[in-house]
């Protein structure tokens, strides 16, 4: 079983770097979907005692949401908002991949400092979980479009879910349910917001959402 | 009892959506707020049993924050009725909403009531998982409230609020998982994540994971509470939201987020990590005060100024609770005082916007002539928020200072005093200039700003602030020190 878990961990890690390196929003959406599905089957691989009916149902729901519902919602937002399909970032692509590798090193170091009370099913799980969450944060702060921020948020949630499965294998149901609920609600609400933003502004570039700031160079003069 | 506290606003919130008559909706809103307030008063009169297998209970801390939330909500409900009436007969020259259609009243009131329900859930939860769920729910129920005026500006504020707070909440989830790891022993036996279980010293928690959990929960809930540098959503959301919502966000929601942090701090203190978590709180508190002071000075938008003042006061609360000892009861008293003063000011700010149709401080002069009642409220609120005697904010700020000096924290008390002085000067200059002078020619008298519905609730808050400043009943003092005792303070 550990071999399968390791394969999934490597998939998650590669997906992190692919998202950072990809230049198409649609590709990013698909990669995050694959990542979500891969992380979703983890509860079934923890050992025979975890293969219960409840776990199977939960895994099915997870795969359905992360693999189908979320991508469909994101693609719908892309279509409705008629956005350009390229990823726009505040940092260059090579730099963002380099940062991603730095985050991986950082997560390896952190997880070596935080020993789990009972060892995780695979030693790769903890660093990969942290790295996925951190990569999600990086995507949120380094991308321009609101849709990318939703994708980053989904990655953050995937990382948290993997951490929950690794560290608390006794209560996977609770952890997964919490994470899924969170992600579902967030995607749903943010989807509505993206729709409103595109209607009001004719685009979804969040760097133009800068009317509310304390120091804007050209808005200093009181009218 | 606790179930009733949760059910009243939930049921009222759903039924507001179904009711078609305007008048009935307003009656329902005020009736629900009054019932909630009455139930809160009842929790003082007789002890409340824990419910739901210990998941829901009222300890002294929860009772304090519940009282703050319910009383502010009652004031807000009355104010909201006046506010919505005014919005209905909107001034055509108001640039903030001339071209935009507001959210339907029914949706607004329903969200307001559900917001109260989620905050109450947050306050009475004893289980860390439930606290997290409630915190997430407050974000979702308050986002539509901020997007009441359907304008680009409020949309921007709502997006920032949703995204930043969602990320914060996600980090808090990670922190909650860390806490669960800390409560798992090597034999894979895990303790339930109940506050009551975890604060027992014999519940051996893993110190490394407990520290990590505190950091993540501090960052996560600290985002919601508006601690610098996680405060960036706060000035936008508070300035763009309708004033009645700004008052509730500042007075009630930020306190709830503080309570979330306080619960983990309680667990840390019980396991000998009180120094670690306390010092982090002191650091964030001082940083928040200093940064907020800088942004208040010369602020061009008076609602943003009030929002930064909330950041400053959250800093004071974090500082007081982190410092421990006598500062804790001072901080808890200050939470009460700040909530009342800030809500008063936001309500008054709503009246000013109705009269002057602007949020720019420079365009508001002669408030005391144009809208006398609001003008007086504005000056009273100004004196209260900067901590001038005889208002109770002075007492609480002073008792925190006294505790800091007694503990020998010289650097902290110097920064504390300097930040308070900076805020004092910054806010007093702006607010006094707005109140005095001659009003603009186009505006001789502004009846919309001064109707009873929108001036009575803040006036009552002002009177309570004044009374508590002159005389603190011994019962209140005893109660505060009992609540502080839960946090290891005196």
Question: Overview of this structure, please?
Answer:
- By secondary structure, chain A is mostly helical.
- Chain A has one domain.
- Chain A has seven helices and no strands.
- Chain A has helices at 2-21, 25-40, 53-81, 93-113, 125-142, 146-167, 172-201.
- Chain A is globular, with a radius of gyration of 19 Å.
- Chain A starts with a helix and ends in a 22-residue tail after the last helix.
- Chain B is mainly α and 490 residues long.
- Chain B has one domain (2-485).
- Helices cover 74% and strands 0% of the residues of chain B.
- Chain B contains 19 helices and no strands.
- Chain B has helices at residues 2-18, 22-45, 60-88, 105-124, 128-146, 152-182, 195-198, 207-225, 233-240, 243-270, 274-296, 302-323, 326-356, 367-370, 372-385, 392-406, 410-435, 452-470, 474-485.
- At the A-B interface, helix 5, helix 6 and helix 7 of A face helix 5, helix 6, helix 8 and helix 9 of B.
